[in-house]
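Appendix B, example 12.
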Amino acid sequence: MTELLIRLFVKDRTDASSPVGRGQYGTLSGWVGVFCNLFLFLLKYLMGHVVGSIAIIGDGFNNLSDAGSGIVTYIGFRAAAQPADEDHPFGHGRIEYLSGLVITFFVFLVGFDVVKTAVGKILHPEDVPFHGWVLAALLLSVAVKLWLSGFYRKLAQIIDSSALKAAAQDSRNDVFCTAAAIMGMVLSPALPFSADGWLGLAVGLFILYGGFLLAKETVGPLLGQKPDPDLVEQIGEILKSDDGIIGVHDLILHDYGPGRRMGSAHVEISRTEDPMQAHERIDRLEKQIQSRMQIPFVLHYDPVADDCGETLRLRQLVEEAVRSVGEEMSIHDFRIGEKGVLQFDVAVPPRETRENGLLKSRIDEAIEQSGKAYRTAITFDRTYL
């Protein structure tokens, strides 16, 4: 069914990473979600009122919020697909993240309403009669949600969308919510108390928890979360595959929405290499990253004095001293300044909690253990990659 829908409604299937392709996949996911969830809402709302089950009604309103999420998803993908303009030179891709915030608001709103109604049901319990045809309707709902979860997951893999991955997870969560409603209807006749209110409370809390996960998923890119480690590793492999690159540091990735990243890094190259050849090397690597990963990239050239024996000896001395202070720390931009001052940068990992002043003291002490005191000028880079 998923493949059939893609063939019928996605015209640009060859380039799913382009804004146009993403927009078509997003449109398909949005309207399929709206149709399925509106159907489930109407079904559960009617069934819930027939048997008087707050768990079933609450689960139905959860589907209604999912239908609203589908509309927001459609609008978000369409807006995000708009090309760059004078006021937004990097496009409108972050609108997809903003649409996720709106979806999160709907989820929290429904969750709080279900919890409120469930508490009332607990304080004033009512019996929930068992009906075979209602059970059949709820089992149909489970089947639809399982298919919808797989549908979202398939599209998320095609266009690499965190929003659709969250939608797939949300659909799987809805299966558990419906299962709770079924349990309430089946178990209530056999229990000395009404389980409907308590199960409705569990459904409401589950919806709120899902809202928290969605908020975490959508707020992170807007706040500037660290990039995917696999992506960083792939860029590093491309840069280090060139024999002329001695070292790589200060890698920065900017996220302007799904499929809209820009990056930069510093690469160390021997100062003996001809400047024109170094420029061609850097230009070739920039184009390689952009063609393979669709990320416009800028590289900065740092010359390294690898032809000076004294510089190499002191660099090795400093590297060993820095590693003795922190095994995960490394140095770059090493050079000997005026009056013999050792100038270098230290890359500090995120797990390191010691302040820069204390780290400098420890590094200076480690260098002095070589038997000779050196003056140092250290710049600390707090890396979060």
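The two ends are 40 Å apart (CA to CA). The beta strands are 247-255, 261-270, 297-304, 330-336, 342-348, 376-382.
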